[in-house]
Amino acid sequence: MHKIGVFVCWCGSNIAATVDVKAVAEAASKEPCVVYATDYQYMCSESGQNLIIDAIKEHNLTGVVICSCSPRMHETTFRKAAQKAGLNPYMVEIANIREQCSWIHKDMAEATAKAIVLARAAIAKVQLNKPLIAGESEVTKRCLVIGGGIAGIQTALDVAEAGFPVDIVEKKPTIGGKMAQLDKTFPTLDCAACILTPRMVEAGAHENITLHTYSEVEEVSGFVGNFTVKIRKKARKVKMDLCTGCGLCTEKCPMKKQPNEFNMGLDKRGAIYIPFAQAVPKVPVIDVEACLKFKTGKCGICSKVCTAGAIDYEQQDEIIEQKYGAIVLATGFDQIKPTKFGELGYSQYPDVVTSLEYERLMNAAGPTKGHLLRPSDGKPPKEIVFVQCVGSRGQSCRDKSYCSKVCCMYTAKHAILTKDHYPDTNIHVFYIDERTPGKNFDEFYRRAVEQYGVDYIKGQVGKVYEENGKLMVQGSDLLANEQITLAADMVVLAAAIEPDKTARSLGTMLTASMDTNDFFTEAHAKLRPVESPTAGVFLSGMCQGPKDIPETVSQAGAAAVKVIGLLTKDKLLGNPCVAHSDEMLCNGCSQCARVCPYGAITYVDKEFRVPGPKRVETRRVAVVNEAVCQGCGACTVTCPSTAMDLKGFSNRQIMSEVDAICK
Amino acid sequence: MSSVNNEREEILRMSGVDPTKCMKCGKCSGTCPAFDAMEYHPHQFVSMVNKGNIEPLKQSNAIWQCLSCFACMERCPRDVKPAKLIEAVRLTVIREQGMNHLESENVPCMLDPELPQQAIVSAFRKYSK
User: Does A341 lie in the same domain as A294?
Assistant: First the structure.
């Protein structure tokens, strides 16, 4: 016979203003097996917890029901309190009378009646609870970072410095990511390459960091502490160990007509190329789509000029398999190509460029060697129009719903840098709102206006068309209540940013949840911002949401701390609320294995004693790997013979809850 | 006041527009080919209807200058549909005159001869697809 205690929380006025907590406690005290029922202002407070602990001891409680907020919030808190009092933590049940009752109802009488029903269901369930003991699993002390931009590099360096081995997987031939393509950084105007490349070199040379560049994650299995990952190392056709990075092959390659991705296609590269001068590793890669040797079988010049003998046309993709305890997603972002905005003429006019293209046009290592020359005729532009919020903050099919966050500041940066180098240039910026929260950010934007005389126009551009060799920009000036048309030499579009395209497939592989925009979701928006809801998977940088470099670096460090915290542990406690198969009932149909999203169910042949002359018979039965099972319950509802059951949420427990509700 | 509010609600119901979605970017007025001819501009229609300030719009010839080209609708990032609002204000005026459609003799005197007529633009839109 159970002895159950019921504790009804007021949650200040969160519950008590809508639910008569005393009436709930009173009603609960009349339920079978309930020997103690009370209410209290804040059950989660220290004194609230002590109230529970004392009651367990005093009344020798064997089961506890807390009527409070969602179990997501404080289930762990109350389980720990029960454990302190000597009760198995899994003998605690939560009746959610806040999120599922007081917050969504207005009428006190109705809400109170519902709270009583919810309490009654939890009381019925706890009577069937069994003490559970969590299993343990080993932790592989190695971290995988997916993405080698500033986010991935920073996380990797921080984890490596703590003494754990880290692998960075980067799909491009070099690490560095988008930051390597930036010219200067706001609001300090540090040269991006000058502050990034030392970090790249450090990551490349660190004894605890292994770089897998030109590589992609193929397959992920396992669980927190025990991930197994297959990585495809794409064939560079260049031997990493022999190449000296002299670059002679890239100079001699005759196929120099390929759009150079690093310079946003504004100039050309060879079929064998090093993305940029400070690439890490500084080893070229052959673009087999463009290479004459691969297309016709002839040429082979790179191989002939390479004194190190590093060119290997026969090199094949390699798949490596590695075990990791933690995985960090740092897959970063891309800028959208604003081709859907026909009225802005991006596809039509070469002098309408995106801000990332403009970034390359200003950069000393860019296609114009740092001289601002417009793409169409190579002349310096004298009138430049910047358009903000292109594809951001919208609800139409062309737009992203979010603010891309960095555009206001980089547009001010572009304006300042341009005016600084070319004071006779006129700059106009069409803006909707100037968003400059951040240290020294608004001061920076004001400098553009007050010190550099940049013309900020509150309004948007309706269309861009060509007339007499000029780009005519028609837009609204809302403060003047006018429609204006400016004659420009160049138009720069602050196109929206979006998560990298590979994020979606990685999210599926890792069961890491994403929002509707394909940004990875954090486990808790406020309190667990660098953790994915999937245990052992962490988030770093733009893949979680738009952010600037300092924010990315802070988040990268925070993700590293979480990884280090995990890898420092030798063993992890598992979740004991996992599936279990009753061998005597299992008919070996395999349906559970088919629906299991975690691959936790295998089948074994097992001998059973049976009555009759045969005495022993071999049957095929399901076995659950408790370390892999996440307790989702898909197998239990699929099993036709009710052999599969979930500990802590057994079919009998659920049915008794339903019975209690329907009583 | 309540009749003003009713008029606002009626215009919103007829047009299916939610003016609170507007983020005041000015794309509609930056786009509008009839901007200079209109006393009130597309973005003003959105904010004035939202505030219930509808009488000046009804009195203005701006409702007849709108070409109904729907460029503002096509390009509005927030899917506000200013042209539909203008159309609804126009229809309110017509209904107050005891009609439910536009009589051709009521229109020409108000129109700028330079501007293509709404009927022609609408026909292009309707039959060009």
Answer: no
pLDDT tier at A575, thresholds 50, 70, 90? confident
Mean of the pLDDT values across residues A579-592? 93
Q: Which of A427, A491, A490, A424 is nearest to A456 (CA)?
A: A427
Instruction: Give the pLDDT confidence of B102-125 residue by residue, as tens digits.
Output: 666 665 555 566 655 666 666 666
Element spanning A68, H or E: strand A63-68
Name the band, by pLDDT with cuts 50, 70 and 90, for residue B48: very high
Q: Give the pLDDT confidence score for residue A330 in this predicted structure.
A: 98
CA pair distance B101, B121, nearest whole angstrom = 17
A216 φ, ψ to 5°?
-140, 150
Position A626 scores a pLDDT of: 85
Cβ count near A169 (within 10 Å): 27
Q: What is the pLDDT of residue A44?
A: 95
Which chain B residue lies closest to A464 (C-alpha atoms)?
B31
**Topology (CATH level 3) of domain B2-127:** Fumarate Reductase Iron-sulfur Protein; Chain B, domain 2 (1.10.1060)
Q: How many domains does chain A have?
A: 5
Which comes out higher in pLDDT, residue A135 or B52?
A: B52
For residue B56, whether the previous peptide bond is cis, meaning omega lies within 30 degrees of 0, is no
CA dist B37 and A630 (Å) reads 66
Q: Which two structure tokens, joined as six digits, stand for A63?
A: 């089961």
CB-CB under 8 Å, B30 with A483: yes
Give the pairing type, strands A166-169 and A184-185.
Answer: unpaired
- Both A78 and A199 in one domain: the answer is no
- How far apart CA B8 and CA B103 sit, in angstroms, is 24
A395 with B80: CB under 8 angstroms?
Answer: no
Instruction: Say whether residue A432 is in contact with chain B using an 8 A CB cutoff.
Output: yes
Going from N- to C-terminal start, the domains of chain B cover: 2-127
pLDDT score, position A610: 85
Question: How far separated are the first and last CA of chain A, in Å rounded?
Answer: 21
CA dihedral of residues A556, A504, A180, A321 (deg, nearest 10): 80
pLDDT at A337: 96
Q: Give the DSSP letter of residue A538.
A: E
Do both A84 and A164 map to the same domain? no
Say yes or no for a CB contact (<8 Å) between A462 and B71: yes
| CA dihedral sign of residues A611, A617, A621, A623 | positive
What is the model's pLDDT at position B117?
60
Residue B127 has pLDDT above 70, yes or no: no
Contacts of A405 (CB under 8 A, 6+ apart): A435, A546, A547, A548
The Cα-based distances of A65 to A33, A121, A457, B34 in angstroms read: 12, 10, 61, 69
Residue A395, min C-alpha distance to chain B (Å): 5
A279 touches chain B (CB under 8 A): no
Whether the CB-CB separation of A458 and A431 falls below 8 Å is answered with yes
Q: Are the beta carbons of A380 and A422 closer than 8 angstroms? A: yes
Contacts of B44 in chain A (CB under 8 A): 481
Cβ-based neighbours of A174, under 8 Å, separated by 6 or more: A148, A180, A200, A213, A274, A275, A276, A279, A280, A281, A282
**Position A72 pLDDT exceeds 90:** no
> What percent of chain A has a predicted confidence (pLDDT) above 70?
100
- Mean confidence (pLDDT) of chain A: 95
Residue A284 pLDDT class (50, 70, 90 cuts): very high
- Whether residue A231 contacts residue A216, with contact meaning beta carbons closer than 8 Å, is answered with yes
pLDDT digits (tens, 9 = 90+) for A352-408: 999 999 999 999 999 999 999 999 999 999 999 999 999 999 998 899 999 999 999
Chain A nearest CA to B5, separation (Å): 26
Q: Which range of residues forms the domain containing residue A219?
A: 143-231+320-332+516-567
